[in-house]
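quick one, 110 residues, struct below
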Amino acid sequence: MTEINLAIVSGKVGEQGTLRTAGTGDPVTNFTLMYDEERKEKGTGKPRKVKGWHRITAYNDLAVFAASLPPQTVLLIQGQFQNNRRVANGVAQHSVDIIADKIQILAAAN
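---
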């Protein structure tokens, strides 16, 4: 059986990413991507919008490009999921990041 690790997401840049250098010397940028999701309220069944967030990591030339994107820029991102586990203050924490392979601008920031 073939396994596929593929993420395709779209949304608006939350906070502008900060370009930094990884321990290997490669450029890396982390930023957030906001998306709207419509859910039905329990009881009433009325639709309501809920904001969600993806954590995005970009490396090398893509990191330099991503660091220049202002908040509210609408993007389409293709990449892979990466699970992260850590212990902070004795509490196990889990997060899922998307490691970007491609970033496409769909609309400029307002």
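The CA atoms of residues 11 and 88 lie 29 Å apart.
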